[in-house]
Write a structure and sequence with these properties.
mainly alpha
Length: 331
């Protein structure tokens, strides 16, 4: 789903609500001007359900919209401050949209390298099978080539490695649990995840929600991720009377102490603290993405070069053996 378009729609919708237009009428008016897309269909269905008298939470149930968006809409209706919440939603999706787009684009590079590597090494293995047959025919009566060469194992090995790596990469991209796991293991992705956590918490707090309720909402959205455990512990410490977020988050396992220190520097203005953390960690994630891209090309050249070398060396060695055989025959 197009995050940038969702942000634009909500900013328009917030303006309509401020001018007195009901939510369902605003949705209908906006979707009329949208081009056919998945987002348009889902928002149109949301407007139809609201016109039938359903609450926002009921109307959003079962729709293929981001879970964060559904919860924020329900929060806006419950607090009777829907225009403010929609503005916060638009701000949130605009802030994380650029970072999310960069990450998606970044994920394409390894995919392209793996696909190209698989095609090249597969073609080499295919051509090698003919070359092996010719060389083995030439060597009849002489010292036979190694079993590994005759079986084609050496030429097929690079293609097998690229194939397994591509399969693993696809599984990681399609599995939510795998994505959550690696998002907290790879520094670049971890910074992006922390920036998104800060941006979401900032948006919820800006809508008028208190810190414990905001953390509870974020925790539900992070079900199954390492962040969920930390947020549950922070909630418990706040409930036990620890007044500040920095104190409650002091022993966090997933959330870095530096992140909590940044949030704590804002003292009682906790929303501003999360805004500062979001800015810093989004900048760190983008810098690490740039560093990754700068390192990616030379590393790829080195890896593919090694695979090509592993393909040519056995053939070069065999070609030398054939030349020696020809010399021995006096040809």
């Amino acid at each position: 789903m197009n995050i940038e378009e969702l942000a634009f729609v909500n900013r328009q919708l917030a303006g309509m609500l401020k001018s007195g237009i009901p939510l369902e009428a605003g949705l209908k008016k906006i979707t009329e001007s949208m081009s056919d897309s998945k987002l348009k269909a889902q928002l149109d269905e949301l407007g139809d359900r609201l016109e039938k008298g359903q609450s926002v939470e009921q109307a959003a149930d079962g729709l293929d919209l981001p879970e964060t968006y559904k919860r924020l809409l329900a929060l806006g209706q419950a607090g009777q401050n829907m225009p403010k919440v929609l503005t916060c939603v638009a701000d949130y999706y605009e802030r994380v949209g650029t970072l999310a787009t960069r990450l998606k684009g970044l994920a394409i590079y390894p995919m392209l390298i793996l696909v190209c590597g698989l095609l090249v090494t597969g073609l080499m293995a295919y051509l090698s099978s003919f070359l092996q047959a010719d060389l083995i025919d030439i060597s009849q009566g002489a010292t036979p080539f190694s079993d590994a060469y005759q079986s084609g194992a050496l030429s097929a090995f690079p293609a097998g490695v690229f194939g397994i790596a591509l399969l693993f990469y696809i599984v990681v991209l399609r599995s939510q649990k795998m994505r959550q796991y690696f998002s907290w293991k790879i520094p670049m992705l971890r910074d992006a995840a922390l920036a998104q956590y800060a941006a979401l918490t900032e948006a919820i707090l800006a809508s008028g929600t208190q810190l414990p309720e905001a953390l509870a909402m974020v925790r539900k959205l992070e079900t199954g991720s390492p962040l969920e455990i930390d947020l549950a512990a922070i909630e418990q410490r706040l409930a036990e009377g620890q007044g500040s977020y920095a104190e409650a988050a002091n022993d966090s396992k997933t959330i870095p102490s530096f992140f909590n220190w940044i949030v704590g520097q804002a003292d009682e203005d906790i929303t501003t603290g999360f805004a500062h953390a979001r800015t810093i960690y989004a900048s760190r994630a983008e810098n690490r993405m740039q560093s990754f891209l700068y390192c990616f090309l030379p590393v790829n050249i080195l890896v593919i070069g090694l695979f090509l070398l592993s393909f040519f060396v056995p053939h070069f060695s065999v070609a030398l053996d054939v030349i020696r055989m020809i010399d021995d025959f006096g040809i």
